[in-house]
Amino acid sequence: MSNTPFSEGIAAGRLKPEALAENFGDLHPRLDDHEALVAADRCYFCHDAPCMTACPTDIDIPLFIRQIATGTPEAAARTIFSQNILGGMCARVCPTETLCEEVCVRETAEGKPVEIGRLQRFATDTLVDTGVHPFERDAATGKKIAVVGAGPAGLSAAHRLAGYGHDVTVFDARAKAGGLNEFGIAAYKSVDSFAEREVDWLLKIGGITVETGKSLGDGITLDGLKAEFDAVFLGIGLGGVNALGLEGEDKAGIEAATDFIADLRQADDLAKLPIGRDVVVIGGGMTAVDAAVQAKLLGALNVSLVYRRGKDRMNASVFEQDLATSKGVHIITNASPKAVIGNGAVREIEFEYTDDDLNPTGQTVRLAADQVFKAIGQTLQGSDLPELEWGKIKVDDTGRSSVDGVWAGGDCATGGDDLTVTAVAEGRDAAEDIHATLMA
């Protein structure tokens, strides 16, 4: 065994550049014009479309698909963006198989839904590629609003508020805007710097200033923002990572899956990104799957995703689970981490099998591991925050927090599911309430 604190199994350049380029190609390539027309032709254009009800942002799906079918994708894009200004990214990362497409009448009748997600991408990409922004600002109101967090919720709120004529300043802790879309999504879901390009396009509405490297408690305070601005929206996400709670968790080779994904997304050369030979990902959500799949695509020999409950309890959709197994990821369920084995660096992780109620069975298994990614949930970070509930900022249906003049939305708030599309909806709806309040 090596005396170095770092495992010899972690190395860069496991695959040749050509293989990496193929592995990290677009998961769902954009439809061409003919494919889009064929896909749109399958829509029944339902009057009471169940797909609209299933969409957290209430996009008029039958309308935008009809607009594609009639050869006006730019109009379709405007229909989408009027409800979801980040419709391009949502078309790439939304679990459409459990939202709009799951309830599609074609899915119910034939087991094959209309490809709503890919059609949405076709329309939004068509317009974004022109460089034209489809919305103009209203007359200036003289109101100033602070948005803390440049992720999906914050950007959605900022765009809607800027559109109403307010001046918006967006603060973000990182050096680049985008939040989850820029730092937390698998690279094969968002290729060609799309997240960055989408932010640049969104800002073309005007009236939005972005200040990076600032967060609550580091450069700005909530009291200071309240004194300077007419309203504050918090879309700070969940920056902390839950711990395994095991002795030896600080050994080399164990890190947060979110950090691994962020490093990969920002890497200029994937061939220089180190990856283990035996990788274990602990968790059962989208982040766990993204980390596991990308570890395999980088050239890890063995990748295991281990979840403490059954497959039916995994937050990752069936599609995501199937994607992982198709890439060679071994999914192990009903197993809870019990011990970290290694001298300085992790060498093995011991798990104990459990039943569906998490009761231990007494049976254990050890998995070889030179690299371990934790993906067992994230926590809210920050001080001087409004009242919390269940570890998140407590908000009402309009996004109002316990502090007068402060709204919140996205993963940091008690709104809904931790999905990009839900965050966009919450940012948009909070912006509507902020506008109504300021103009009353």
Rounded to an integer in angstroms, the radius of gyration calculated over CA atoms is 22 Å
Give the helix proportion (percent range): 25-40%
The largest sheet has its strands arranged as 3-2-1-6-19
| Principal-axis shape | globular
CATH class division of the largest domain:
Alpha Beta
User: Quick one: how many beta strands?
Assistant: 19
Give the termini separation.
70 Å
Account of the protein in words:
The chain has 440 residues and is of the alpha/beta class. It has three domains: 33-128, Alpha-helical ferredoxin (Fumarate Reductase Iron-sulfur Protein, Chain B, domain 2, Orthogonal Bundle), CATH 1.10.1060; 144-239 and 380-438, FAD/NAD(P)-binding domain (3-Layer(bba) Sandwich); 241-377, FAD/NAD(P)-binding domain (3-Layer(bba) Sandwich). It is built from 16 helices and 19 strands. The chain has helices at residues 17-23, 33-40, 50-54, 61-69, 73-81, 87-93, 105-110, 116-128, 152-163, 180-183, 194-202, 222-228, 257-266, 286-297, 318-326, 420-438, and strands at residues 144-148, 167-172, 208-212, 215-216, 219-220, 231-234, 240-241, 254-256, 278-282, 302-306, 330-332, 335-341, 348-354, 360-368, 371-374, 378-379, 388-389, 392-393, 406-408. The chain is globular and about 65 Å long. Mean pLDDT is 95; it is low at 1-5.
